[in-house]
Design goal:
This protein is mostly helical. It has one domain. Helix content is about 95%, strand content about 0%. The longest helix is centred in the middle third of the chain and has 30 residues. Keywords: Membrane, Transmembrane, Transmembrane helix.
Length: about 30
């Protein structure tokens, strides 16, 4: 159970910057 929770947390930490990077790419491509 402790393994699953730590894996879930690391997944959230991975998805957060990934979503931010996707947002900035869309924002940058709309300006260029």
């Amino acid at each position: 159970v402790e393994d699953e929770s730590s894996e879930y947390i690391s997944l959230e930490w991975f998805k957060l910057p990934l979503g931010n990077a996707f947002f900035f790419v869309v924002l940058f491509s709309s300006f260029s």
